Amino acid sequence: MKLLSVVAARPNFMKIAPLVAAIKKHNEEHPEKYIEHILVHTGQHYDVRMSEAFFRDLNIPDPDINLEVGSGTHAEQVGNTMIAFEKVLKEHRPDWVIVVGDVNATLACSVTAKKENIKLCHIEAGLRSGDMTMPEEINRLVTDRLADLLLTPDRIANENLRKEGVPEEKIKFVGNIMIDTLEANRDKAAELKISDIIRNNLLNDAKDLNGFDFTRPYALMTLHRPSNVDSREVFEPLLHFLTQDVAIRMPLLWPIHPRAVKMMKEFGLWSMIDDNKDIVLLHPLGYQEMLRLNMDARIMLTDSGGLQEECCILGTPCLTLRWNTERPITLREQGGISVLVGNNVELIRKEYRDALKSSSIKNRPELWDGQTSLRIVDFFTRNFVNQ
Ligand code: UD1
Fold it and tell me: Separation of 9 CA from ligand 1 center, angstroms?
């Protein structure tokens, strides 16, 4: 059986690492049922810190093929990926294409695979935010409509797919593959020193850390969604909230996404944040570094999908700076620890104060047990290995 899996952007790497490891383990234990695996990187994320560092940290072998599509508008990214990926499929003819998550390449490679009559498997199927202004929602819907095998992280996702008329035999609840990576890296992360992480990743080397108390509770933040950072009307009040409400109480550690840096500079808001002595801007962090900071953070402010899930397992109170989430299982009303606060500063302020009063609640949804990749490989070998 020949599988070809695709990665493109940062949030994909932690979803593919356990799958690669599980295939390797299977091949060592069952050479008679050998799975050939080709790893394709589309190159959507290309910076060392956004891509290469994750391959190293997570022990992912170098991709067999890199399409080097880079950045661009959505149409450029999708179009260029499809053109390059079609050539790969024509040459390698895998039995299955496996895509993960909801980035532009997930959509582009799904469409291309199906047009080549190649079977398609989607890991992390069935997540729905209901928000069609989110590019990721469009990517999820198209991918799930085309997929032959939809591997879901939770039972809410199963229900979403059923409501859309996906036949039961295509849906398989396997759990959350990201948690495999979290569990595999927990011990290594715990060994890292927070002060080292900060010193090694300072965005502004000249930042004065003299007198900075590394033992104080801190807030941790990430922000990259176009809906939060691309318009000044939204971004500027958020930044004021950070200086006036957060940094005044505790240091704020902010590993910052290239998109947010670009927009802050464009809006002339850079120095307001960079000059604040209690806001520490960091380069995008490695996987274990981020996990380490999350383990001890007093509170998380984020618009990322994956961090909501990691906070849920680690018990870090999480303010999700979005009006909706495709991951409702992480919300307080489902037993999780995340709360949706959108980008309305009044609401964020209220929830921020409440969250600081609340204690840490760890919640492990069903099958978020670190074994998802093994279940996936087992499913493939039981059902399709003689192809
Ligand atoms: C993409 C994904 C999003 C995911 C996020 C995580 C889509 C539609 N969006 O959004 O789902 O949560 O990745 O990071 O696929 N850039 C760099 N260096 C890089 C990568 C990007 O400087 O290595 C710059 C690009 O030039 C661009 C900006 O960052 O200006 C945004 O990159 P892009 O890949 O278009 O989207 P993300 O916002 O990262």
Answer: 7
Among left, alpha and beta (phi > 0; psi -120 to 50; other), residue 311 is alpha
CA of 235 to the centre of ligand 1 (A): 17
Judged against a pLDDT cut of 60, whether residue 167 lies above it is answered with yes
CA of 309 to the centre of ligand 1 (A): 20
pTM, rounded to two decimals: 0.96
Q: Which of 371, 363, 356, 358 is nearest to 327 (CA)?
A: 363
Q: Does 224 participate in catalysis according to the annotation?
A: yes
**Of 179, 269, 176, whose CA–CA distance to 231 is shortest?**
269
DSSP designation for 328: G
The residue from 26, 37, 224, 283 that is catalytic is: 224
pLDDT tens-digit map of 299-314: 999 999 999 999 999 9
Atom of ligand 1 nearest to the CA of 226: 38
How confident is the model at residue 386, as a pLDDT?
Answer: 67
Residue nearest to atom 21 of ligand 1 (CA): 45
